[in-house]
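re: ur question from earlier - yeah i can do the single chain one, its not a big deal. heres the input i used so u can compare w yours
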Amino acid sequence: MRTEIRIAPVLAALLLTAPAFSSDKPQSERCAANDATGEMKCVNRNGLCAELTVDGLKTEPLKDEKTAARVHAIDHGEDVCWMLARPVSTKLRAVAKAGGIFPPFLGKIQKLTVNAYRLDGARPGAHVDSLDGVELVADGDPNGTWRLASEKPLPKGEYVIVFRIFGLGNWDRQAVLVSLDPTLKPGPAEKTGKN
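and the output i got, formated as tokens:
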């Protein structure tokens, strides 16, 4: 007696019922707040419960569907919901604070971490890894400014930078589409936090 296993139909059924990849979602759905109340509105951790300023520019929601589709067509594993309106320094300074739809979620800022993905030269469907040797360093009080430091100079170009914001109460993150330019000066250092 011979048993046949039909894998192709089973695999096809699984693929048809699998959830869509993040790149298949419209930006409005990918970055929307959930329907929960209170602090549970923040559990998606897509930056809606934090405020982030980079070299004096506040991050803005990335709403343009065409730009979002281009960014998400590159495999970096991040839901990019934020952008900066202008280029910033490759040695940028960032300030984060609790804010957004439920400000008490984060509390006083204790730490910021970062992952950076260079998009220039990556084709749709290509995988890009987080750059090694890129970190944020506090200029003094963790509740103040944090400076981007890298082992190797970052070239001019388009990046996704993921800021993870850790507060006394919880954490949030903002994946931000940015243009970096080494000829620009970073924002000023703030040794003590004001929020």
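The chain has one domain: 21-181. not sure if urs matches, ping me
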